[in-house]
Write a structure and sequence with these properties.
The chain has one helix at residues 23-31; strands at 16-21, 36-40, 50-55, 60-67, 78-85. By secondary structure, it is mainly β. Strands 1-3-4-5-2 form a 5-stranded mixed β-sheet.
């Protein structure tokens, strides 16, 4: 059975997912060297959703999910989130990881992310 899925960018209404990220992957993402992550597929990610990434060192950035391959040899429960920059950014740091001074503008959040 073929469980591969492709989702195009205009199929989803944006939601905001707040996710933690380690320091090195955050640096790679902010430098532009990294444009994707392998994540647990446990939040109902959809193309077009926004992701607010928070690093333990205080850096924060926002991205839009542009592509989500599932299957293709990935274990069940995993997906690849391909990112593109949000324009304009959702947060005051403009995606540069300005740290604790980052103030997110109001955005639609998933029930899991409120709190």
């Amino acid at each position: 059975m073929d469980n591969r899925q492709h989702v195009s960018i205009d199929q989803a209404a944006p939601e905001l997912h707040r996710l933690k990220i380690d320091a090195q992957p955050m640096s790679d993402l902010l430098s532009g060297n990294k444009t994707f992550e392998i994540r647990n597929d446990d939040r109902g990610f959809s193309v077009g959703n926004h992701v607010h990434l928070v690093c333990a060192d205080g850096r924060e950035t926002d991205r839009t999910i542009s592509h989500i391959p599932r299957g293709y040899g990935l274990s069940d429960g995993l997906c690849v989130l391909s990112y593109r920059a949000i324009s304009p950014p959702l947060c005051a740091c403009r995606g540069r990881g300005a740290g604790k001074s980052c103030k997110r503008r109001p955005a639609q959040q998933t029930g899991r992310d409120r709190g």
